[in-house]
Design goal:
Helices cover 65% and strands 0% of the residues. The chain contains 6 helices and no strands.
């Protein structure tokens, strides 16, 4: 449970991220510490990143942000080695977080 002052501080940082304003590394670390432990804070951060992405993107990016679809920070797709597929456990062990949780 967050105290009122902590919640307001976190929401101020999240608001600046969403609007594309400058956020210091210390503030990002502080916010991420809470996002790792509190699902609500993680959702605030994800939505702020989506707002930031939608403000700089095209119509499709805005639609994806409004529908809360996809990853707000897309990375390279996971592709196992086609020559040596290996063990299924090894494959899932190298997979991104979203795939390992399922």
């Amino acid at each position: 449970m967050l105290s009122a002052s902590t919640r307001l501080k976190l929401q101020a940082i999240v608001s600046r991220i969403g609007s594309g304003d400058a956020v210091t590394l210390g503030e990002r670390i502080y916010l991420q510490k809470f996002a790792d432990r509190d699902r609500t804070v993680a959702d605030w951060l994800r939505q702020a990143r989506r707002r930031q992405q939608a403000s700089t993107g095209d119509h499709l990016d805005r639609l994806m942000a409004e529908l809360d679809l996809g990853d707000p920070e897309p990375g390279p797709p996971f592709r196992p080695d086609p020559e040596d597929p290996g063990d299924l456990g090894d494959w899932f062990g190298q997979a991104p977080d979203w795939l390992r949780r399922s």
